[in-house]
Amino acid sequence: MKPLFTTPFKALFLLLWLSLPAFATDYTNYCNDRFGFCVDYPSSFSMEPPPENDDGRRFHDRHGFQMTASGINNVLDATVASEMKSTVGDFDTVTYRKKGSNWYALSGYKGRDILYVKSYVGQSAINTLYLQYPKALKTNYDASVSRIVKSFVPGDLNEAH
User: Fold this and answer.
1) Sequence-ordered list of residues with C-beta below 8 angstroms from that of 53, at least 6 positions apart, any chain
2) Which residue has the higher pLDDT, 13 or 26?
3) Cys-Cys link to 154, which of 33, 120, 123, 129 (CB 3.0-4.6 A)?
4) Residue 72 pairs with which residues in a beta bridge?
5) 26-151 falls under which CATH superfamily?
6) How far are the Cα atoms of 21, 26, 44, 52, 151 from residue 91, in angstroms, in the given order?
7) Residue 23: its pLDDT value, please?
């Protein structure tokens, strides 16, 4: 019988291959009872316990992907433009920016990570999706990021919560 590994290189290759992150194909939907926004997230992600004020949730995997979906009351009368300008400070470099009548999206880099933020801004509430993950795993996360971003739907932004 021929040995399974004939060289240390093949054994190392197999070990590395088996340790690669398994990226999600199944999703679960999270809807926030207080602010009404909803978002899909990979079912393999861990969800942290809710904060006392139930303004959202944090999710993460074991490979460095972090996701926060949250809401706040718009007590300072923020606009899409003012929120977008404020969020730019979270980035080292912004590579993508787009805005609509009640939303904006920013993407870029923060340290060794990719950062993506999408916010819906209304008269009385703001709902935000915040994604951060290692640049080195970008291609592995592309499909999940696309699914998460497309699924993010705001709650009632014209009512304080």
Assistant:
1) 34
2) 26
3) 120
4) 126
5) Mog1/PsbP, alpha/beta/alpha sandwich (3.40.1000.10)
6) 26, 30, 27, 28, 23
7) 52
